[in-house]
User: Which sequence fits this backbone?
């Protein structure tokens, strides 16, 4: 019997890279065809679907199209959007993160193609008082297309005039990161760890961004090797730094080569034990989580990732697949969520998000009280709201699904966990505690003083 092998065609070497130009070729495009040669019996996966008789009729190389599942998953809603608004774009192009970056929607005119904009939104994007740039990937636009202005995902990325209101409590740099920056793009606040701001760029800008003073601004360009070298030199000199958090901006908007340069450089520092990354890419640009990226990241373990999620509707098939790919690369995944009025400030929404995250193999990590950043007062809830949400989760669902609620103290005090008070008092040698149902139980604690007046 004739032996058959199906293998991908070879691709030419990739060209010079530029992560924002769409010309970065760190990942090979899929071959437009598959060379089939009669030499080996191994036929795997989708290739098995081809009938042997068909192959045997074609002893020389033939071209076959790549089945859709080999071109990346596209959710139903997004697929319909793509067909309607980008009919000439192939699924391969759509699933190419560079194509997504190149076609970001950045203006009211661009957005109005996909939804009826509210006057408040148009004014925020076109008026003189414009605060913070707009950028949304076509993928994320597919999730908000045709929505109403109060749709949570839309509220999180499309500005309104509320953003132009500056409350007396607002601060440009509420966490005063600037004061703890020994060099440009590095924040050393806590004793054993630093924040490395690798870039000022994000594929999609959140309207409540804590670092809106830096990200998306043309006057900053943070991802230069020269600047990175200075920050790396600082880490090398400070042997107490055992943990480096690479964030930005979104570091996963950098090309894989640039990112690997940075990660490998940090990994070479002996006293750095762990590397963490902060990103929203799996949510707004899930196409970025390629096998090649994961293969690169897994070389630098222990490496952890915090993913920025806002709402359960962000748990699209694309995002869940991207998280699975990262998890399969051995990267522990945690979530970070900002509590936002009108977006996710209810127990039901938060429970759905946290439970969905666990299913997507992401451990809910932090729920943040919204920082008092300029132009975000309309998003801020009371601190009680956060406690109410955590109390509505704790005991009511899996403990793993309960994040830690924190207030990042304005003025540079760092993250302060805030909990519901479960101590109901003391009765003799018993400590009285309130459970998740509001019932009081006693615990024998004869030597304790907690709960005493
Ligand atoms: S992803 Fe993070 S850094 Fe980028 S705009 Fe959103 S909050 Fe800011």
Assistant:
């Amino acid at each position: 019997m004739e032996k058959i092998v199906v293998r991908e065609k070879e691709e030419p070497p990739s060209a010079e890279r530029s992560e924002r130009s769409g010309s970065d070729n760190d990942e090979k495009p899929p071959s437009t065809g598959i060379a089939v040669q009669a030499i080996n019996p191994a036929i795997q996966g989708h290739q098995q679907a081809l009938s042997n008789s068909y192959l045997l009729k074609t002893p020389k190389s033939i071209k076959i199209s790549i089945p859709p599942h080999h071109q990346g998953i596209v959710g139903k809603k997004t697929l319909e959007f793509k067909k309607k608004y980008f009919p000439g774009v192939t699924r391969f192009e759509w699933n190419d993160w560079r194509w997504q970056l190149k076609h970001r929607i950045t203006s009211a005119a661009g957005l109005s193609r996909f939804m009826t904009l509210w006057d408040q939104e148009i004014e925020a994007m076109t008026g003189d008082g414009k605060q913070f740039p707009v950028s949304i990937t076509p993928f994320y636009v597919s999730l908000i297309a045709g929505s109403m202005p109060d749709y949570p995902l839309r509220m999180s990325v499309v500005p309104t005039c509320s953003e132009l209101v500056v409350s007396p409590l607002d601060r440009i740099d509420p966490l005063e990161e600037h004061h703890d920056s020994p060099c440009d793009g590095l924040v050393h606040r806590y004793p054993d760890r630093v924040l490395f701001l690798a870039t000022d760029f994000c594929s999609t800008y959140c309207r409540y961004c804590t670092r809106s003073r830096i990200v998306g601004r043309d006057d900053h360009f943070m991802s230069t090797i020269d600047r990175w070298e200075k920050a790396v030199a600082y880490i090398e000199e400070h042997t107490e730094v055992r943990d480096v958090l690479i964030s930005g901006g979104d570091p996963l908007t950098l090309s894989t080569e640039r990112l690997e340069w940075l990660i490998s450089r940090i990994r070479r520092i002996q006293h750095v034990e762990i590397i963490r990354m902060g990103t929203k890419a799996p949510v707004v640009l899930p196409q970025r989580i390629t096998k090649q990226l994961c293969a690169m990241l897994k070389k630098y373990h222990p490496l952890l990732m915090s993913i920025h999620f806002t709402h359960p509707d962000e748990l699209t098939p694309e995002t869940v697949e991207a998280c699975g790919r990262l998890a399969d690369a051995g990267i522990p995944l945690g979530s970070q969520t900002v509590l936002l009025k009108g977006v996710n400030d209810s127990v039901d929404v938060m429970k759905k998000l946290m439970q969905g995250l666990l299913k997507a193999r992401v451990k809910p990590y932090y729920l943040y009280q919204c920082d008092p950043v300029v132009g975000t007062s309309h998003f801020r809830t009371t601190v009680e709201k956060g406690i109410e949400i955590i109390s509505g989760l704790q005991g009511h669902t899996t403990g793993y699904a309960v994040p830690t609620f924190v207030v990042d103290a304005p003025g540079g005090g760092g993250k302060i966990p805030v909990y519901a008070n479960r101590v109901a008092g003391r009765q003799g040698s018993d400590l009285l505690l309130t459970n998740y149902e509001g019932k009081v139980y006693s615990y024998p604690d004869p030597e304790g003083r907690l709960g005493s007046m």
Remarks:
- Confidence is low (pLDDT under 50) at residues 1-70.
- Residues 202, 205-206, 209, 211, 215, 248-250, 280, 308 surround iron/sulfur cluster (CB under 6 Å).
